[in-house]
């Protein structure tokens, strides 16, 4: 197996490294570098603009819509170098990763030229309006309605678990537009403005006092008629494209946050002596092996994209990816809490200082619930087997769509059996 990258990819790598060195703040690569909270907030705003000016946000997108048209290989190298530098590479997750690629795949020319530049520049923030109180895994059961009235859709209903709903300017929302059609038909995918009287956002407070996701209520909310993505009553197919983007991760960089996090866990075990415990050592060895499996699988996925290979193995790799990393993460965070011992049972985080942990991101200071960075990662890992399709649903997909096993009996069939 040849794991080296072609010379042109390595030349591109040098270009990215030079750009990062020229544009990141002085001292960024020095051990112990940090910015205070105000300086960091200023830098983050400026960084989005610097990235945009450099053309690096969604650089694989076509040039005519503001991307750089990077090849798959170049995109991989770009992601690797930003990861290596620990530098952010996006404006807004929901825009860059979910709705942007969906608009490029399904949008009209007008939708692309209207929305894509605003996504790239970070001018508009998005949220995802799929889940409802009675429609999560069974998304086809959604009941939020949109009815055409002249030049506008009038939306009524409720969404839930809407991450960053309180800051979003737009929501990509699934609505029932033909109540008489079968469950998965008659749904449309709308791009709806959030800042209007008909949209009420209620953040859901969690046990730690934070409130990242929200309930969103629509009461005669208005959305321009032309903001349907992929055609009226075709929303299910469009939504599947979005979910595909949500479940995929950057092939050769997805494992890196776990690798860095495992180093921190091992350091912790060395510092408090738990490293001498054979069960802890066994747990660490198992975690290390799984991270290596993610790394190799990432390279396998990349090779299959580059060579155009499509077989059962490739399909299984992509379908098992999300459950593999999310279940790994829960397992290793349980181990981390065990390693911390009594320290893991009390809240030892700094209530005033931001702390980074690679497997989680940034822990924001929270005086009411000062969890440490590793504790925050432990809590967040609980949600990772739920959002973007639960592990159980992923297993159904592997069974039914990859292995071709008989379909799961539907509730109606069970009742009649
Ligand atoms: C942190 C977080 C952020 C989120 N952000 C968003 C967001 O921004 N926008 C959005 O629209 N949604 C969001 N969600 C919602 C998420 O998509 C749903 O929680 C998820 O789809 C599961 O739906 P549910 O919660 O209704 O659970 P349910 O579908 O009710 O499932 C409950 C349990 O039953 C199991 N189950 C259900 N059906 C089957 C089946 N057929 N076979 C086997 N087991 C089954 C599930 O696996 C699960 O264990 C977020 C969720 C979380 C945790």
Distinctive features:
417 residues, alpha+beta, 4-stranded antiparallel beta sheet, 12 helices, globular, binds flavin-adenine dinucleotide
Structure description:
- By secondary structure, the chain is of the alpha+beta class.
- Helices cover 47% and strands 14% of the residues.
- It contains twelve helices and ten strands.
- A four-stranded mixed beta sheet has the order 1-4-5-8. A four-stranded antiparallel beta sheet has the order 2-3-7-6, with no helix packed on it.
- Helix 7 (256-272) runs antiparallel to helix 8 (278-307).
- The chain is globular.
- Residues 413-417 have low confidence and may be disordered.
- The structure holds flavin-adenine dinucleotide.
- The site of flavin-adenine dinucleotide has 19 residues, from strand 1, strand 3 and helix 11.
Produce the secondary structure layout.
Layout: H1 7-23, H2 37-54, H3 72-85, H4 93-106, H5 109-120, E1 126-129, E2 145-149, E3 152-163, E4 170-176, E5 187-193, E6 199-203, E7 213-224, E8 228-229, H6 235-247, H7 256-272, H8 278-307, H9 312-340, E9 355-357, E10 361-363, H10 373-384, H11 391-402, H12 411-416
Parallel strand pairs: 1-4
Antiparallel strand pairs: 2-3, 3-7, 4-5, 5-8, 6-7, 9-10
Helix pairs in contact: 1-3, 4-5, 4-6, 7-8, 7-9, 8-9, 9-10, 9-11
This protein binds flavin-adenine dinucleotide.
Instruction: Quickly count the helices.
Output: 12
Name the bound molecules: flavin-adenine dinucleotide
Mean pLDDT: 91
Percent of residues in helices comes to 40-55%
Largest sheet, if any? 4 strands, mixed
Compute the number of strand runs: 10
- Which segments are poorly predicted (pLDDT under 50) over 5 or more consecutive residues? 413-417
Structural class by sheet pairing and helices = alpha+beta
> Globular, elongated, flat, extended or rod-shaped: what is the shape?
globular
Based on the structure, what is the oligomeric state of the protein chains?
A: single chain
How large a portion of the residues is in β-strands, by DSSP E?
Answer: 5-15%
Which radius of gyration do the C-alpha atoms yield?
Answer: 23 Å
Order of helices and strands: HHHHHEEEEEEEEHHHHEEHHH
Strand order of the largest sheet: 1-4-5-8
N- to C-terminal distance: 52 Å
């Amino acid at each position: 197996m040849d794991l080296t990258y072609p010379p042109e990819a390595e030349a591109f790598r040098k270009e990215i490294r030079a750009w990062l060195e020229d544009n990141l703040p002085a001292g960024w690569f020095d051990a112990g570098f940090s910015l205070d909270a105000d300086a960091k907030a200023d830098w983050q705003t400026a960084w989005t603009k610097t990235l945009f000016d450099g053309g690096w946000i969604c650089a694989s997108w076509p040039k005519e819509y503001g991307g750089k048209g990077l090849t798959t290989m170049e995109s991989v190298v770009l992601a690797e170098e930003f990861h290596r530098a620990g530098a952010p590479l996006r404006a807004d997750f929901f825009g860059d990763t979910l709705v942007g690629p969906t608009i490029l795949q399904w949008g009209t020319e007008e939708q692309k030229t209207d929305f894509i530049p605003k996504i790239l520049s970070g001018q508009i923030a998005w949220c995802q309006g799929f889940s409802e109180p009675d429609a999560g895994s069974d998304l086809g059961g959604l009941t939020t309605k949109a009815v055409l009235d002249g030049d506008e859709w009038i939306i009524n209903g409720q969404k839930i678990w809407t991450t960053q709903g309180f800051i979003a300017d737009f929501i990509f929302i699934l609505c029932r537009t033909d109540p008489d059609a079968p469950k998965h038909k008659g749904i449309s995918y709308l791009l709806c403005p959030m800042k209007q009287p008909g949209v009420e956002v209620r953040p859901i407070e969690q046990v730690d006092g934070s409130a990242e996701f929200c309930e969103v209520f629509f009461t005669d909310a208005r959305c321009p008629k032309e903001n349907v993505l992929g055609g009226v009553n075709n929303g299910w197919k469009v939504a599947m494209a979005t979910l595909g983007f949500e479940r995929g991760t950057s092939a050769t960089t997805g494992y890196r946050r776990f690798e860095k996090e495992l180093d921190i866990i091992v350091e912790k075990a060395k510092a408090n002596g738990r490293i001498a415990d054979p069960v802890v050592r066994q747990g660490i060895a198992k975690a290390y092996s799984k991270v290596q499996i993610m790394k190799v699988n990432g390279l396998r996925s990349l090779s299959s994209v580059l060579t155009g290979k499509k077989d059962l193995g490739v399909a299984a790799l992509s379908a098992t990816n999300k459950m593999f990393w999310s279940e790994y993460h829960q397992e290793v965070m349980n181990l981390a809490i065990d390693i911390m011992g009594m320290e893991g049972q009390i809240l030892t985080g700094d209530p005033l200082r931001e702390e980074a942990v690679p497997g989680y991101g940034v822990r924001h200071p929270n005086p009411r619930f000062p969890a440490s960075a590793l504790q925050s990662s432990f809590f967040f890992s609980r949600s990772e087997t739920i959002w973007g399709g639960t592990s159980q649903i992923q297993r159904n997909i592997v069974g039914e769509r990859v292995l071709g096993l008989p379909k799961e009996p539907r509730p109606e069939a069970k009742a009649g059996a």
